[in-house]
Every structure is written in structure tokens, then in C-alpha cells.
Write a structure and sequence with these properties.
Helix content: 25-40%
Shape: globular
Distance between the termini: 20 Å
Order of helices and strands: EEHEHEHEHHEEEHEEHE
CATH architecture: Alpha-Beta Barrel
CATH class: Alpha Beta
Radius of gyration: 18 Å
């Protein structure tokens, strides 16, 4: 499932409310530093010269949509959030910081009560301009699907084979807990290898990472749409509640989408 408009929606997000989606990756294919087995956008494609929307095209599309909503031509829908996610990793855009600056300015002009949110896989947090851009946002929703290298690689299939969980945790620690940690829980297999980040061993490592990072919120969710890897299992609501319980007992805010 690919998004073929720069500004799309608004749609109702099960996690964020009424959301205006922003697509700043290519509109024809996925471009990401991960190749997650559960990604609703499918597998990465090898494209020699991917075409990204320009900063100006993004600003123009967003302003047109916000003006339309402000003038009441979107059925009176009240916007909760402007969300960057879509066909891959939004922080890969070379003008990402400028795009976020434009978005914040337009939000302030047309819908000051709306939040600016970015869903990111955390791989680009070694770039200073990406961190600076994320600090301008209201919601930084940053991924950590597993806290062991082996399971992270099985689930997320990073393009950089040398990526480690320790590196991601180090990146995330820059925000001093002022972010939302997002994790997808699942079981299954891929390429003959078992996938399960719900085992006692995996959960123990993940709980330790959460306590180290101490995010303001932990967002856990399950697969909800068709996945590129067919052999995956959706975790039950009851099991998700069980996963959340130890963190809630320690005072963490944990939201569940199941």
C-alpha cells in the first residue's frame, strides 16, 4: 500500500486521531533504510535515481490542504495532527529540516492546535540536522522493534548490515526521554528464520532498553494490514496487555493499538 499524494487525508489514525498525512518520499515506490517484514508499503525497490518531492512542492501541497480545511471544505473536520510517515523513512529527505520548518509555520498559521508528528525508524539520528528537525516537532515517534541485534535484523532487515541496537539506543538517548518509543510485536518466520520479539529473552532485553531510555510514552502495536511477509502472526490484545503491564507498574505510559 503506497501513498500517491504529498498531502493525503485527513484520515483517522488508530494511534494519533484525525491525521493529515505527509508523504515526502517517492510517490511511486518505497524508499527506506529498513525493509521490515511487516511494512504495509511492501518491500524496498532498487531505483537508481529516486525522485523525491521538492521542499517547495511539499510546502505548496500542505498549504493547499490546510487552507481547504480552514475554509470548511473538508466537512468540518478538526485536525489533530500533521503526520510524516508514508512510503519509507521521511528523515532521508535531504531537505527534511526545512520541510519541518515550513510545516510548523503553516500549522501555526492555519491550525495552531494541531501537532506535528514524525514517525521514524531512528536510523538517521546520527545526522545533526535530523535531530534538530525532530526537536521542532511536537511528537517524535521513534522505532525500536527489538533490543537484540539478531531479532532487530530479522524483523527490520536494515539496509546497513552493520547497524546495531546499541547504536540505535545511543541515538535515541539524545532526546533525554522526550520522545515516544514505538514497537511492533509479532511472531512468524522469514527466509526460514523464526521471528518472535515476545519471548522472555526478547522482552527482558526490550524492558531494559525502555528503562534506560525512559521515553515519555511507549507505543506498542500489532500488524493490522497485509504484510509483505505472509508468514506472520498478529499478537492478541490480551498478550499485548500482558507485555505492557510490567512497564505500567513502573509508571511508564503505555498505549496499545491491537
Amino acid at each position: 500500500m503506497l501513498f500517491n499524494e504529498i498531502a493525503y487525508g485527513p484520515i483517522h489514525s488508530r494511534r494519533l486521531g484525525v491525521s493529515l498525512g505527509m508523504e515526502i518520499m517517492p510517490l511511486e515506490h518505497k524508499l527506506c533504510t529498513f525493509n521490515c517484514v511487516y511494512c504495509e508499503c511492501g518491500w524496498n525497490e532498487t531505483v537508481p535515481h529516486p525522485k523525491l518531492p521538492t521542499r517547495e512542492e511539499i510546502r505548496t501541497a500542505l498549504e493547499a490542504k490546510l487552507r481547504e480545511m480552514a475554509h470548511g471544505t473538508s466537512n468540518g473536520t478538526s485536525l489533530d495532527v500533521i503526520t510524516f510517515s508514508g512510503n519509507g523513512e521521511p528523515t532521508l529527505h535531504p531537505d527534511f529540516k526545512g520541510i519541518i520548518e515550513d510545516t510548523c509555520a503553516l500549522r501555526d498559521r492555519y491550525c495552531p492546535s494541531a501537532k506535528v508528528s514524525v514517525l521514524s525508524n531512528s536510523t538517521q539520528l546520527g545526522r545533526e540536522e535530523v535531530v534538530e528537525a525532530l526537536l521542532l516537532c511536537d511528537n517524535r515517534i521513534l522505532k525500536l522493534d527489538a533490543a537484540t541485534d539478531e531479532m532487530m535484523h530479522r524483523i527490520d532487515l536494515p539496509v546497513n548490515n552493520g547497524l546495531t541496537v546499541a547504536t540505535i539506543i545511543n541515538y535515541l538517548s539524545q532526546f533525554d526521554g522526550d520522545f515516544t518509543l514505538q514497537t511492533c510485536f509479532l511472531r512468524g518466520e522469514h527466509a526460514g528464520q523464526p521471528i518472535d520479539n515476545t519471548t522472555p529473552e526478547q522482552l527482558s532485553a526490550w524492558y531494559k532498553a525502555v528503562e534506560t531510555l525512559h521515553p515519555k510514552e511507549v507505543m506498542i502495536y500489532v500488524i493490522d494490514r497485509k504484510t509483505p511477509e505472509e508468514h506472520l502472526e498478529k499478537i492478541s490484545r490480551e498478550e499485548m496487555e500482558s507485555i505492557a503491564a510490567p512497564l505500567r507498574e513502573k509508571g511508564f505510559a503505555v498505549s496499545i493499538s491491537a
